[in-house]
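Narrative summary of target 7.
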Amino acid sequence: MRPREAIESRNAQEARARIAVVTPFLDKTHGTERIIAEWIARLTPEFEIHLYSQRVEDIDFSGITWHRIPKFPGPHLVNFVWWFSANHLWRLWERRVRGLHHELVFSPGINCLDADVMSVHIVFEEFLRRVLPELRFARNPVRFWPRILHRRLYYRLVAGLERRLYADPRIVLIYVARKTSSEVERLFGRQRQSL
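Modeled conformation, tokenized:
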């Protein structure tokens, strides 16, 4: 490559918009994660993709910068609270210290408070309503109570975050299925948007 072409190529890369993708894990074996991986692969030629994640498998990293956030050992609820806080702090540190600004923050589901665009693959408010009878302590042996308590706390936390985020008209929501669109409309008053 000649010097002029190298400079033009570098300038073109610098001019590409930066997208932050915030998801705890990404692979091609789970449904939602596979869809996100395919979206990212299609976006990399035109956008600078920064992936904030704890675990990534089976992903081609050409055109993607992975910002690995360590996983916190222990129950899922504890790691989720850590993940939710850490990805905000990580991106804040990079913005303030390294000057790394993102034009768009995308989150598949409830992963951060500052997403511009979120995809909705499950509505935990509705899921919790359906499984709550199964999660009653009286219906389960005492040895399962710690697991039941953990699930109830986790589902309630995520449902509370959904109430805040899915109802916010500034966040563009992408629905994976009509069912999720109907649930968000019914539970949070969000009308379907046409893009």
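The beta strands are 18-22, 25-26, 48-53, 55-56, 64-68, 104-108, 117-120, 172-175.
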